């Protein structure tokens, strides 16, 4: 590069050169430079070159869920339907669903029985599907009363009573508000009983089974006493599980003298489980009444 003559430089450039010379002299006096490199550029720093980035191969994601250990697949299940009384229908893998159903049925035991068998064992229905054909008309009346009341109040029907509650009312056949409190969904604080109990009892009344009021005075006393004694013997809190009122009244009128004849009485038919479990003591009670009258 050709150096310019001082006369060709501007005042700023001349001043800059004087400063460079003065600074170089100071550095030389300090032993930091020899002063010969006036106007020269500082030594260039070594250029650091970046190492090329290493490309790592993509690894498969780690499976840490216990559900996916050993290559297991997630179950293909979903809730296909859910009713107001809490019953759910599961959808998804048909084979897995079938296996789950079989396992649940084997574990539940009595749940795999038909409604008539469960009735004979004194089981409570959990919905309309668990009712006997003879109980469905009463259930329909209670359900219609509930829907009418819900429409009148502008609220959902399940807030008045769930289907499970209505099914149990049909099975228990309560005649008083206090007896209604023993039904599922009507206990606790008793708010539903206080608000809607009388309505449900009125709707149930036309479907009530024959009652002892249709019998002669004292005609069913011995049989009713035998029913209560059997319930107390088994520690059963509800006498209806031994024999409903309609069964007791029909036993009095039919006057069965054997187990075979007892099976023709309402509530003792079907698979005859109730007759097998409670038939003998009830027959003894009925015959005791006949001997007393005779």
Describe this entry's structure for a reader.
- The chain is mainly alpha-helical.
- The protein has 4 domains: 1-33; 87-113, no CATH class; 128-207, HRDC domain (DNA polymerase, domain 1, Orthogonal Bundle), CATH 1.10.150; 212-293, DNA polymerase, domain 1 (Orthogonal Bundle), CATH 1.10.150.80.
- It is 46% helix and 4% strand.
- It has 11 helices and 2 strands.
- Strands 1-2 form a two-stranded antiparallel sheet.
- Strand 1 (77-82) and strand 2 (88-92) form a beta hairpin.
- Helix 4 crosses helix 7 (191-204) and helix 8 packs across helix 11.
- The protein is rod-shaped, with a radius of gyration of 46 Å.
- Residues 35-39 and 290-294 have low confidence and may be disordered.
- Pfam families: HRDC.
Strand content: under 5%
- The helical percent reads 40-55%
Sheet having the most strands: 2 strands, antiparallel
* Unreliable stretches covering 5 or more consecutive residues: 35-39, 290-294
The structural domain count equals 4
Kindly report the CATH topology of the largest domain.
DNA polymerase, domain 1
In short:
The protein has 294 residues and is mainly α.
Fold blueprint:
Layout: H1 11-29, E1 77-82, E2 88-92, H2 94-108, H3 115-120, H4 136-153, H5 163-172, H6 177-180, H7 191-204, H8 221-234, H9 245-254, H10 259-262, H11 273-293
Helix pairs in contact: 4-5, 4-7, 8-11
